[in-house]
Write a structure and sequence with these properties.
Order of helices and strands: HEEEHEEHHEH
CATH class of the largest domain: Alpha Beta
Shape: elongated
Distance between the termini: 18 Å
CATH superfamily of the largest domain: Transposase IS200-like
CATH architecture of the largest domain: 2-Layer Sandwich
Structural class: alpha+beta
CATH topology of the largest domain: Alpha-Beta Plaits
Number of helices: 5
Length: 151
Amino acid sequence: MPTPTALAGLDTEASYNSCVSAIRRAAGAAYSVKYHLVWCPKYRRPVLVDAVAERLKFLLHEKATVLGVQLHALEVVPDHVHLFVEDDPTYSPAHLAHQFKGYTSHVLRAEFSHLRSRLPTLWSRSYFVASVGNVTERAVQRYIETQWERP
């Protein structure tokens, strides 16, 4: 544990609290859970263009509303999708990726026959997820380490 002199002049609580974005509340929980999700079509084929891309954007907004997920940013490029979402802790990132990918694949393949003929499945099985926040690891570590030093 760092000594008080090592932390002199460091207002850890103010530093930590100023970095945390708006806190949402539910029964028994306060949270701020945000994820950056990325996934690609099978074989990273550039099929997300024109009408397919526009329909995909609409479907992702629609699914986010159904799930109660706040969609902060969305970008569809020909060979991958980026989502920046905020959710409550009841859904895991894996669950969110599965919901978005499953729903959009089902609808897009039904509406655009070339997606059925060119690809065995619309999406690859993999995805990327990263938690997003304004608080650094070091700020959290200092906040926890100095719990007993604050009034």
